[in-house]
Design goal:
mainly alpha, 2 domains, 5 helices, 4 strands
Length: 185
Amino acid sequence: MYSVHKKKPIRTCKKSLERYTSYRSYIKEDFHHSCGYCGDSDEFYGHYHIDHFKPQGDARFVHLKTEYSNLVYSCPFCNLSKSDTWLDQDEFIDPCCATYDSHLKRNDKGKIEPITKNGKNMYKHMKLYLLRHELIWVIEKILVQQEELLKLRDTLEEDSDKLKVADAFIELQNTIKSYTRLYME
């Protein structure tokens, strides 16, 4: 089992800004350019959102509208699925919380799986079962492999069989990336 995130999101910004949208550059870095909920990289979607973990549309949380500790860098799919939902008994888990990974994991195919009751609630409400989350995870693995393959390719002799195989794999990976871009638009 794998963590949902490649790198654990954190919140480091200590500034107090008037508009929550002014935190965009800070939150993007703190969440490592990935959705706090599903871990998908912002490389594959257009514009990422800034989600209010405790929803700004809920009167109980209006005072948290510009609190950095309540903001989550979110892909459009997770943010729109979560919306202003807040579950009183089985609340959502803050992605920066140390226990987030004990509620949700990824299997060896990249599919997000719930572990606990809270994880199941998030999985359902935020549609973490969508195939796109699994595909993004696989594509990101392919990109890492491609980088490694490109480094290896530079060490191979010209006209060797190994170089031909490496080039064929690189071409296949580029084809997969091009289809991915079409799917994500």
